[in-house]
Amino acid sequence: MECLCGIFFPLEMVGNVMAFFIENMFLIGNVCLFAFCFVINLDRVFFPSEYLESPVVRLQSVPEATYHECVKYKVTIDKLSPNSKIVWWKGSTIINLNNPKYKASTCDGDNAVLQIDKVTKTDEDIYTVKVYNSVGKEESCSSKKLKVVGDPPNVCLGVSYESQPLTCGYTIILEANINSRPSPLRIQWEKNDKELPKDENKFLIDNVNILKATLTIFNANIGDKGEYSISVTNALGTKKKKIKIEIKENRFICISGPVIVGQSGEIKFQTIYPTHVKISQGKWTRKTKSTCTDLASLKEVSIDNSPDKPMVQNVTITNVQEKGEYQLCLGDMESNKINVFIDGSKNISLEKQGNCLRFYELQTVSAKALRKKLDMAPESFQVIWKKFKKCCKGNAKEFLFPKKPKSPNDLDVSRLYAIFRNVIDLKEPKNGWGRKPSKINTNTADDIERIRIHRNELCHNSSFEMTTDDFNTAVLDLTGAIRRLSMDSPKLTHEISKVLNKVFVDGCEINKMMDEIKQFQKEAEKSEYNLDKLEAEIKASKIEIKENTLDTTKSHDEKKNTNDKSKETPLQSKQTNEIKNGPERAAEKQDVMKFLDVYDNSVNMLRSCTLAFRTGLLDQGSGICFLRRPLNIEEPVFICKHLSLKIGLTHMDVEKINNTLDIGSQLKSIEFCEHGNYTKARISVSSNASLLVLFDDSDTPHVHNFEELSTDKPLWLVFDLCEPGTYVELSNVTF
């Protein structure tokens, strides 16, 4: 097809090849106008570079690269012509892209990349990207300098903050802080310059975290002393660090028992044998004014040993006629001494009352152990306190002292517990924070939780009495925590012995002690209440931060996909929504799931009544709360819970309930305990009033029938937050 074109050329561009058009040309200044009919391929038309705009090249800098890392130089080029060529230079030399060390991407739009594998010091130079036109003339360039950094590893080896005393029977943790650029290629632990024996019951090596490697020595004994070392190797060299470990023999063992029994009474002692000591070494003795008797030789003495580890030994003595001093010897080890009086007069406290008073006095010793452990922290107390203050916001302001504390001595157990839990870097208790640890769990966090729980149990004691069996078990559990946290402090060990051998005289001393316990209980309950509020706010804050992060990511993704979504038809949009979010989100309603404003006084409502948190002590309140409105048939409710929770259904008009304990006693509930501390689930009601619960780790819903209920009447969803620290969050959509 022919076309008529009118083209203006500068006179300098008219070549001899166009001479045959001269006769049809009209001169206008230095521009010629000619008319002709032709078919032209613009791709083959040559335009000299001086008449084209030069491309703009921007090369992203690499501040510094670590030895043996992969480095990428990214370049953005604006106004790049199709026939241009990109060439990479190192210094004054063109980079050979056939060399496997280098990889360069072809120009993709306005971007190009140069990748340098496993950089070393020899790769340091100025890197340049140049753009050439089709005739090989340089049009534009950009340069950046590459600096490669790296050194042999630097290692700091020491005993971990969470380690127990370096004595027989305890657990020792060696901790190596590693600074290595490039990353370590090999980490090796040794003892006395020899590889550690492969014994999982003795040694546990954890090198997963290349910045902090640990060696745990279980049940330490004299044979474990020696020089331990760690060798760390990277591409630039090896660093070896050593530490000498001295294991001391444990010279003390704790026994617990009564200090007074009635005439012809029964004495019960209890102790826990160290794991490194043989039971055959044990010898119980009783000293009187004239004799020293081996209890094993007496018919009225029975000794029972538990099969568990650590082994618990119970000694029972019947028909006791005279007072005496009792002690256990295990080879070179000696226990505390307990003087037992045989007296039924009213001048001395009764056995159960005396047990309670002694256990109360042990609380002072356990608080000292917590303070001593905090003093051992790597950071100063003032730095730790500033971090702790940041946790105390909103309703938790009452948790702070009116005056700034100067040292751990100004803090009670609840505040010390909160600092350890939220500020100090500790491994979480085996059973989780807020739960009683088992006797075999003896890490630092387990012992901190152990002290708090024993303190709370004493607060619940309204009779001010303890049986000797309960006393012995609690004392050995608590004193073990005190000794581990204080690193077997001789001072605190002496205080333990003194308390366990103390007798309280009836009268003014007993009355004074009872008043002290009552005041202690009030202050402890108040501190515990404030602690619950603090933990509730911290949890809510963490959830909010997590949601904000998810919302930010979601907003970014939505913005990124706006153009694609705008092109979808209504049907495509609906299908995409259901595929990505499921039918629940596609059919999401405006009615946000919330809790009703009728709930037990031990429950705190947070985040606009979408999160319920149980505070207070276990015997205070019922932990009952309700959904804001009756649940519709097959309407999904998504929950996220922590710790122990029960759910159920009721026909009662919950908006008119005066006492939530009535609901709790009648509630047919479903326990969530077996699904772990942290659980997500989808809850709905079927047409026959059954409760369907689908856990996030299951594909099949659990069906729970409520035969006495029907869908003819409103069905209210009931939540029972079973213990302090439990929380549950509601949502219309899956978490």
Question: What descriptors fit this protein?
Answer:
Immunoglobulin-like; 735 residues; alpha+beta; 10 helices; 7-stranded antiparallel sheet; disordered N terminus; 43 strands; 24% helix; 7 domains; flat; 30% strand; 7-stranded mixed sheet
Account of the protein in words:
- The structure is a single chain.
- The chain is of the alpha+beta class and 735 residues long.
- The protein folds into 7 domains: 4-45, no CATH class; 51-149, Immunoglobulins (Immunoglobulin-like), CATH 2.60.40.10; 151-245, Immunoglobulins (Immunoglobulin-like, Sandwich); 254-342, Immunoglobulins (Immunoglobulin-like, Sandwich); 351-531, no CATH class; 533-579; 591-731, Jelly Rolls.
- The strands form 10 sheets. Strands 22, 24, 26, 27, 30, 31 and 32 form a 7-stranded mixed beta sheet that branches.
- Strand 33 and strand 34 form a beta hairpin.
- Helix 1 packs across helix 3 (413-422), helix 1 (351-375) runs antiparallel to helix 4 (444-459) and helix 4 runs antiparallel to helix 5 (468-485).
- The longest helix is centred in the C-terminal third of the chain and has 53 residues, at 508-560.
- The two termini are 65 Å apart.
